[in-house]
Amino acid sequence: MPGFHPLNETAPTGAATFQVRYGPEKLAAYDEQWANNLGLTHAGSIEAGGDFVRLSDTRNAQPEARRTFAMQDIANVGFAEAENIVVLRTRDDGREACLWMASAADAHALLRLLPRTTTPQFLEHLRQHEQYRENLQAIAPRVFVTPAIIALNVLVFVVMALAGAGLTDVDPRVHVEFGSNYGPLTWNGEPWRLLTSAFIHFGVMHIAFNMYALYNGGVLTEKLFGNARFAVIYLLAALAGSVVSSWWDPSRNSAGASGAVFGVFGALLAYIARFPRAIPFDMLKSVRSGAILLCVYSLAMGVLLPFVDNAAHVGGLLGGAASGYLLARPFEPGARAVPRPGTVAAVFIAVCTALALLSYRLWR
What we know:
Blueprint: E1 15-22, E2 43-49, E3 52-57, E4 68-70, E5 78-80, E6 85-89, E7 96-101, H1 104-113, H2 120-139, H3 145-162, H4 172-178, E8 181-182, H5 183-186, H6 193-196, H7 204-225, H8 227-248, E9 253-254, H9 258-274, H10 281-304, H11 310-327, H12 341-358
Antiparallel strand pairs: 1-2, 1-7, 2-3, 3-4, 5-6, 6-7, 8-9
Helix pairs in contact: 3-7, 7-8, 7-9, 8-9, 8-11, 8-12, 9-10, 9-11, 11-12
């Protein structure tokens, strides 16, 4: 956060109550530094002095152990002077709250009451975040493949809706006309359906969920891999999902970006497995757990709901993970200086060859 100052002084004694506003309970972005993991929202108060600090808001006015900090447990207090923000943290159990103080005077008064020890581990945490932000700016200042894919999916959906595909009650015949992965046609002279089907959706809820998941996973994954490699991974995951779907059920009429989206998360997990130090550790835990949770939840829904194409999900996940692992590079400017298109071409050919061998029995 801009204006952060680690503090290393002895706090004087005293006691006071301050009116505050709390930061968000969840991170707004992957590179956001502060979080409030105490369930506090909107306006509230902080009572500080003596041996404890107690936090409350309008929903949590009663004292609770989770929102009461012993002074001896507080360390790594943060201060963003320009915004009058104080960040309160515990030393060992990971509790933290971002406090917007009413004035600069209140912020400084609170700081005088708090322990001001900054641990070496936290300084290393700050160094990792700063290095990550510098690498982001140097390597991936912007993403455009993920927004372009979302825009293309939405455009196709609108055109198909105007053609009679339906928003909730869908007409599969229109989807076949536009290029869904209908096995009897795909494997009898129309293999292009393996790719076009990834940009076609069965109804508004189908596209809404897929595009939401794609945005949440695609932005970070595109930054980690780079624009061109991310595009290749997306296409390979889409193909893998379509091929495995037909391999599992050759007569199925399948469509949707979910196989490719699973591939995006598979590539993200593969990158983390190969270069776990590329992302600051606290962010790494959040990103990894979020990706795993989404994949497990979606696969479980595929088991419970027979109309969900779980074979495409598994195929896309494996295709994205394999191509992502092979295409991953260290998240450093030096590692990105040379594009190495030969590596990208070799991975593309290898994955396509594996998919061709898998689908050999389906060709008429």
